[in-house]
Amino acid sequence: MTEYGDRYLVGNQREQVSRFRARVMLAVPLAAILFQVYVPRFLEFLGYLELPLLVTIYFALMRRSQIGGLFIGAFIGLAQDSLSIKQPLGMFGIVKTLVGYFAASVGLRIDVEHSVIRFLLTFFFYFFHQFLYWVLARGLLGRQIPFEIQLTLVLGLLNAVVGVTLFHFLDKLREPA
Q: What does pTM read for this prediction?
């Protein structure tokens, strides 16, 4: 690779792994899930934000552990499933588990501290999340739900912008190395 391209690759992953306090690892996903479940009841336009997904992506990218990404995604997805009224138990669990795994895999390979990379990854994983949910709903549940690509792309951009802002805030909650 060139010198320019090498800057975005992770050198020594053990030095790059972010550490968080246990209360942060519990409070932030719980707050995101409660936001997702209760706030859209009062402000419907905020229902388009997928905060549990953004938190899953962030923690998986920063921890850089595929097993950790699996557990983070499974925990957040199943907790979101258990609190939502309309969703069958396990759908978000499966989808967010896969997103957590793939986000951690990407976090192992590239430097995810740059805002542009975070924006692109958040956009990609939002689209991946929505597409995978659509595939599973059709395949496992037999639901004929439409997959609106244009709406998904616009909402992906919205979630990516919010995600970069949220990631900047969550960076301040990391433990010093």
A: 0.88
